[in-house]
Amino acid sequence: MKNRFNCLSAMLIGAVVLAVSCNSLEVTIPKGPQGEQGIQGIAGKDGLSAYELWVASVQDQTIQDWTGGTDISDFFKYLKGKDGLDGKDGKSALDLWREYVVTGVDDPKNPGNQWDKEKVSERDFYEFLSGADGKDGSTPYIGDNGNWWIVLDGSPEDLGVPASGPKGDKGDKGDKGEKGDDGEAGEPGEPGEQGIPGDSPYIGDNGNWWIGDTDTGVPQRGENGESAYELWVADVTSDSGLANPDNGIYDPEEYPEWPRDAISLEDFYKYLAGRDGKDGVSADGVQAVLDTLYTERVDKSKYNVAPVIALSRISDGETAFEYVNPFSGGAAFIVTGPGPVIIPDCEVTFTTLDGSTTYTKRSDEAGYVYLTRSELPEWYDGAPSAADNPKDIHSGIKPVSFSFGDKTISDESKIASTCKVPYQVGLKMVVVDGALKGRYSLPVYEVYRIVEGVREDSCFLTAVSRKFVDDYRGHGFLHNVSGDYKYYRNEGAVKMLRRIYDNASSTLSPIPSSSSPDEEIMAFFSTVSNLNDGEVAGFTRSVGSDDYASPSFGDGENPTVVGVYDTFSYITKGCLRVRSYKPDYGLKVSDGTRSVHVPSITQLPSDVLKASYVWKSGHTTLSFELDWDAIDRLEVADGYSGRWQGDSFTYDYCTFKNLPFRPTSTFSVFRAKGKYNGSTIDSKVGITWRKPIVFTDIYDGFSTTVSDVDNGFVLFDGLGGTFSYDSSGDDADGNGSAYLFGQEISKSEEK
Fold first, then answer.
1. Which residues have C-beta within 8 Å of that of residue 354, sequence separation ≥ 6?
2. Model pTM?
3. Which of 9, 168, 302, 561 could cysteine-pair with 142, CB 3.0–4.6 Å?
4. CA–CA distance from 491 to each of 257, 271, 290, 538 (Å)?
């Protein structure tokens, strides 16, 4: 029987080695179908840990060669063995597992059935370790006396093993299962929902298992044996490689074999993770860190209110990161506990860097809290900088407290100094040019950011001309954010976008298609100018109104909060669309001194000469000609003459005849529309310079228009009205009067 547990413990120890990359165990374990990051052993039928199986076997005298106690330190002593045989033969974890399964063991993925004794390949070994859905699991925790404790049969028990370092809070008991995915082992406990962990077992420099500063004396493996992790690395880096398990980590089409450079301890966890894993929540309300995206500035071993990176900027070839969201002007923070695990519905109290302002916020279901622009502090001379420092994430301050479930954490030794509340980002707008386009006078301007009191030398945003104008996209100018600024994305963001794509039946141009590579999707959704409504409305010109106007940028109102996930995309009627936000930092700014000219549009004269309307053989012909000489003498705004006159960008007026570039081919378009004998007639004809207009099939009550005279910008306001006549006033030959644009013209009928 002891051989059975030697095998069990060897497997447990072999799997746990992958948890040791430093002197502590990080529980950022990718989750399979079971609870997320339990520090687990190999489960039996009822989901008990290796330690619990051992206790049960000692108590029912299945194990008869042990006369000591049954606490966890005794378990370690038992594993060590009197004769030291537990690793003397140097067998690998794979070899020990093979010896174990041929004796007849339960299939951890199919409780109640035996594992197929013929399935003893290395791939089978990894499958066996990955486990099935977890149920109840007990995770050791550090009690008030500084020792390790564990919940057995619903009751806490002091294990008598002291734990070094800050005292961790007890992890509440979670759901049990038949067996969970193979994660970090050593701390015996079935995979299940776990609370906030304290110190964890690790392998010391002498090759033994340690808890805190205590050497258990138990070797991690045999003298020449290989751990499961080492076997896995050898397979991945071999000439033939190791097949991709298609568990949702790497696309099997792109990576048919597991990437040869993905061989860290964390990568081993990812390899073992099941594809259909779901996030679990413990009784304390903590969740696995993989439930959220942005934890780059989190101290994994402590409690954090850490800032979320919102923007990256390239300057002098270096990339810097920032916390203030360019669309709202506010900032987001992630609330985490040791592991790290996120803590939703957690009330946190924290302050600005100088301690002058205190905030009390409650984290949302994803573990985030938000500060609006108005809640962020304003910069002042001598204020401590809140600039991101990836080389020292502890350059912030410690939050005051964390309250979740029935716990309140305020012990400073458990709290990380990663909290940095950034300062409001200011904007400076500078009008640099102007343009007439369509019916609008458009300002051309640049926007500069003011970060911690310093205006940046490089321009953040410009209003640039578009090549076309239409009602849907605006009036011809687009806000263009410098390519040096990118909205921050990471690999988790791409995975979230992929899930959004999966729920959409189509994508709206120019959004990349779902078949696009991750890099293309990442690039599109990182481009700040793609994520805003962008269009510069300009100032509308009208007839007889000559004015100057001061442009502004931003609305200063919405949105006050932009969620971490809100800048991806959304689905309307099955179609994937991009979010529409303006990168105004929640501000409305203007130049303050400069203005742009909004020149008048000249009215096209309605005088007609040699006009006639003839009805012949059931059809009509309307002939008229504009007073071309009068049009030549009219003054129009010269959109080509724009220049600075003091603090105003001004346009000259000149006669139409002297306009540098004037339309003299197709001058305008005449249109008539109406119903006659039950049929709708809608006809157009181009008006050519100094040529009469001839139009057929126009009848009483038809609407008539002459379009704006446009040369890239409107020169003349068009005409509109109704063509009409009253036959009751005709003479015996059918001659009378008709009216076009309010002018009376002759009407005749030819028999």
1. 377, 383, 384
2. 0.59
3. 168
4. 20, 17, 11, 39
Assigned domain for 591 exists: no
Query: What are the phi and psi torsion angles at 614 (to 5°)?
Result: -120, 130
Q: First and final CA of the chain: distance in angstroms?
A: 122
Residue 6 is predicted with a pLDDT of 41
**Integer Cα distance of 245 and 123 in angstroms:** 9
If one counts the domains in the chain, the total is 4
- What backbone torsions phi and psi does residue 228 show, to the nearest 5 degrees? -60, -40
* C-alpha–C-alpha distance, residues 319 and 420, integer Å: 19
**Residue 724 Cα distances to 364, 670, 679, 703, angstroms:** 67, 16, 18, 9
Distance of alpha carbon 116 from the chain centroid: 45
Same domain, 666 and 631: yes
Helix axes 2-16 and 72-80, enclosed angle (nearest 10): 100
Same domain for 635 and 533 = no
Q: What single DSSP character describes residue 129?
A: H
Question: What is residue 328's three-state secondary structure?
Answer: coil
DSSP helix/strand/coil, 265: helix
Q: Provide the CA 363 distance to its chain's centre, in angstroms.
A: 18
Check if the beta carbon of residue 338 is closer than 8 Å to that of residue 302.
yes
DSSP per-residue string spanning 294-315: --TT--TTSBEEEEPP-EEEEE
Show the domain range for 362. Answer: 287-414
392, HSE (Cβ side, Cα atoms, 13 Å): 6
Enter the tokens of residue 280: 């679990």
Give the type of residue at 409: I
d(CA 203, CA 13): 10
Task: Say whether both 54 and 126 belong to one domain.
Answer: yes
Number of C-alpha atoms within 13 angstroms, CB side, residue 81?
Answer: 17
Say how far apart CA 729 and CA 406 lie, in whole Å.
95
Per-residue pLDDT tens for 216-236? 544 444 444 556 667 777 788
Whole-number pLDDT of residue 226: 59
Cα–Cα distance measured from residue 720 to residue 741, given in angstroms and rounded to the nearest whole number: 7
